[in-house]
Design goal:
It is a single chain. Helix content is 76%, strand content 0%. The chain is built from 25 helices and no strands. Helix 7 crosses helix 8, helix 19 packs antiparallel against helix 23 and helix 22 runs antiparallel to helix 23. The radius of gyration is 28 Å and the shape is globular. It starts with 8 loop residues before the first helix and ends with a helix.
Length: 608
């Protein structure tokens, strides 16, 4: 145990206090804080759980509901503003703005749905849900981007781990919601309003940029956290299956939520162990240096003589003195980007062919899977699945969303370092695999929605860490806050085209056709409901075609970057970390040299 290593009495308390301070300000505790923030920031993926409440309480048709869904996706993925703010302010400012936006947006929706305010206009509801969802972009920018900059050589693992907790957040929040509020779907919106904001507020000053220090075992630490998250995911999966077969009461929901919370906090044990090792090494080094104080306080003649020897300066390079670099305007080099892997400017990246390819492929790939996730509740209702099964679909998407994110992050990192397998190739294969899920929904095979939820959830999750890692590797980390969020813009673009313009329109068209066949006409404010396999067949055939287009476009990126990924893409970051490591080694050698000199001098004096 860590506590056993502290001495007793007042000295022991001082040591524990010192360790506690080092723990809180350490970068591993920052990883834990980021995991908690991410685990509560996936409210946008729970839209399928509370969308029906909004639809029935406010009397919306499917097109209007899909417009709200598009506003949610727009807010959740257009984080360019948060990226620009993060370029000029510390991360805690970004997190604070996100917490305020989250509470305001979802709290106003809860007031509208529960009838505590007058029925808002559709544009107001769009603003509310866009504001609440946009807080996710602020949380991602403040926490995730900061960690990528603090762990540049493990960025795939960082992205996979943090994004996997975003994928699990739907299932985690569902368990907490049942424990707090039972089966009150309206209260779910209230939980989404206050819980993520509270967590971000608690860890405001924990998230910050720390000077890069390479740690040989950092990947092993991330793997330990990944295994814990895998245990959490497996527990949630078992819990979902049991809750689907049995009816839980309030006490049982509280018990299951308590176990989820314990597993959620388990990475803190890994953080404490790792930070204790670092603190112990630093303490031993400080004690060793303090023992040499006598050399400075009582210098011997030998040491004084040594100090008079001038230190040789490194030779200056021959030639003319350094000429200041000519300033180049930001508009002059837009179409003259550096080599891949170097730091692009924002405009150089935005106008590059590589970014255009990534944007189109993500629009088709993520846009299709996101449309399936957002319409999952309506798809289940149209195919006659019971409400308990629909909840299971949403939870399955959340679990496999997690697996997609974590597997894509860690596996791509391993394959890249071991076999030089390029991330764009994996990104392309994931897009192709998602077509299977779309076709299962299109043809409405009995019980196929269970398998479709697994495939869609996995592919949706896997695309994100791969896309974010590709952007950081090709365009550099200098302006990653902004470029990271620009990549996310592709998601709402795809969602608007495939969800609002295609899915919403064709669903309402089929619902009106069924209503007309029954000899009924739609009344003002009446919601439209479609039943049967035809409701979404044409929708997902179109989405499959769009996804295949994204696959073909992504193949171009694989071809363009094949030479870049065969090179050592992390060499620059190792070279940047070497000076700090060299300084530490040099300091250690100087201390040892002084110790040897002092010991020799003491021996000579005693002999005389």
């Amino acid at each position: 145990m860590v506590a056993d290593n502290f001495s007793g009495g007042g000295s022991g308390w001082r040591e524990m206090k010192s360790f506690g301070m080092n723990l809180i300000i350490g970068r591993w505790f920052m990883v834990f804080a980021s995991l908690l923030i991410m685990s509560a920031s996936g409210a946008t993926y729970m839209f399928g759980l509370y969308s029906n409440v909004i639809k029935t309480s406010l009397g919306y048709d499917q097109t209007t509901l899909n417009l709200l869904s598009f506003s949610k996706d727009l807010g959740g993925n257009v984080g360019i503003l948060s990226g620009l703010i993060n370029e000029v302010t510390p991360p805690w400012v970004v997190l604070l703005i996100g917490a305020v936006m989250n509470f305001f947006g979802y709290f106003m929706i809860w007031l509208a749905v529960t009838g505590r305010t007058a029925k808002p206009h559709v544009w107001q509801m769009c603003v509310y849900i866009c504001s609440g969802a946009n807080s996710q972009a602020f949380a991602n920018t403040g926490a995730l981007v900061t960690l990528v900059k603090n762990f540049p050589e493990s960025r795939g693992s960082v992205l996979g781990l943090l994004k996997s907790y975003v994928g699990l957040s739907g299932a985690i929040l569902t368990q907490l919601y049942h424990a707090f509020y039972g089966d009150d779907r309206e209260a779910l919106i209230l939980l989404i309003a206050w819980l993520p904001a509270a967590i971000s507020f608690v860890f405001l000053r924990t998230i910050r940029i720390i000077k890069m220090v390479r740690q040989t075992n950092e990947l092993r630490v991330f793997y330990n956290m990944f295994f814990i998250s895998l245990g959490l995911a497996c527990f949630l999966m078992v819990l979902i299956i049991i809750q689907n077969r049995l009816i839980f009461n309030r006490i049982e929901y509280v018990g299951s939520a308590s176990l989820v919370t314990i597993l959620l906090f388990l990475p803190l044990a890994v953080v404490i162990r790792e930070d204790f090792k670092i603190w112990k090494r630093n303490k031993q080094a400080l004690n060793y240096v303090s023992q040499m104080k006598v050399v400075i306080e009582n210098p011997t003649a030998v040491e004084l003589a040594q100090q008079t020897v001038p230190v040789e300066q490194p030779p200056q390079p021959a030639g003319d003195p350094k000429v200041p670099e000519k300033h180049v305007g930001c508009m002059e080099n837009i179409f003259k980007p550096p080599d891949r892997g170097e730091d692009y400017t924002i405009l150089q990246a935005l106008f590059s062919i590589d970014m255009l390819i990534i944007f189109i492929a993500t629009t088709c790939g993520v846009g299709g899977t996101l449309t399936a996730i957002d319409n999952l509740g309506q798809i289940g209702n149209s195919l006659g699945y019971p409400s308990r099964s629909i909840t299971t679909f949403v939870s399955l998407v959340s679990i496999w969303n997690y697996l997609g994110r974590s597997v894509a992050g860690f596996a791509s990192e391993y394959l890249l370092k071991k076999y030089k397998m390029p991330r764009p190739l994996l990104f392309t294969l994931v897009i192709l695999f998602s077509c299977a899920g779309h076709l299962l929904i299109a043809f409405a095979v009995p019980n196929s929605l269970y398998f479709a939820s697994v495939i869609i959830g996995f592919c949706f999750g896997a695309q994100w860490p791969l896309m974010y890692a590709i952007i950081s590797e090709i365009f550099g980390l200098k302006y990653y806050s902004t470029l990271y969020n620009f990549g996310s813009v592709a998601s709402p673009v795809g969602s608007y085209i495939l969800n609002v313009r295609v899915a919403g329109h064709l669903y309402d068209k089929e619902a009106l056709k069924q209503m007309k066949a029954l000899g009924r006409t739609r009344k003002q404010g009446e919601d439209l409901t479609c039943t049967g396999g035809l409701c979404y067949r044409m929708v997902f055939l179109i989405i499959t075609a769009a996804t295949l287009l994204g696959f073909l476009v992504s193949c171009i990126l694989v071809f363009r970057t094949r030479k870049f990924y065969k090179s050592d893409i992390y060499k620059k970051f190792r070279e940047e970390a070497e000076p700090a490591e060299t300084d530490m080694a040099s300091t250690s050698k100087q201390v040892e040299s002084k110790a040897t000199t002092y010991a020799a001098t003491t021996t000579t004096t005693s002999d005389n």
